[in-house]
Amino acid sequence: MTPIAHYSSLHRIGAATLVAGNIGGFAGAGGSFSTFARDKVLLRAVRKRYRSCMANSAHVAILERGVEAWNKWQRTVFNRYRRGTDRDPPDLSRANFFGARLNGVDLRRVNLGRCDLRSAHLVGADFRGSGIEGTRLAGADLVAAHFGPLAVQLRSDTINFYPPVTGSAFTRAGPNVADSIFGFTTIDSLDLRQWSGLELARHEGRSIVTIGTLV
Fold this sequence. Notes:
This protein has 215 residues and is α/β, with parallel strands linked by helices. Helices cover 31% and strands 8% of the residues. It contains 5 helices and 7 strands. The protein has a 3-stranded parallel sheet, with no helix packed on it. It has a two-stranded antiparallel ribbon with strand order 2-3. A hairpin with a 5-residue loop joins strand 2 and strand 3. Helix 1 runs antiparallel to helix 2. The protein is globular, with a radius of gyration of 22 Å.
């Protein structure tokens, strides 16, 4: 059952319970408060999980304004992250940017889980530290793009290496890159065994694959 269908069925159950008066002293033989409370907790959990699978609409709106506006905002977000004042990554999960012109876009630390970037123009895009679990990159132009972990210089002058924002995004279910265009693309310390469609990708030039990458 999909999250939407699951949410809808629980919503109907909750509504029916309310209409029937299945709450404690109002319920009689029809139900109990404990049952209602349990359903209410479950409904809140489903709502929270469903929201967590969706993009942040404000973040989507910024990128829809164009790469220049997005990169300017990203620099601000990233600087707050370096200072330790903002740990929440931008969220574009499940957003639709099919065929979008996003050359040079800064996607560092962005949650791109199941984001639709098919046929998108992503020349020079920076994917370092981003979560690309299930990201749809089929047919995308990835020339000079950069994939890998993210090294951040903090104010303490220590360098910290951050994994993708979704934890095991690169190692559990990687992106689909069938018919994507690679060339001068950097792939650093990733597990390509989980990427799909690599055998169908097109190579317009030599790419850099570091020794830490699993193939």
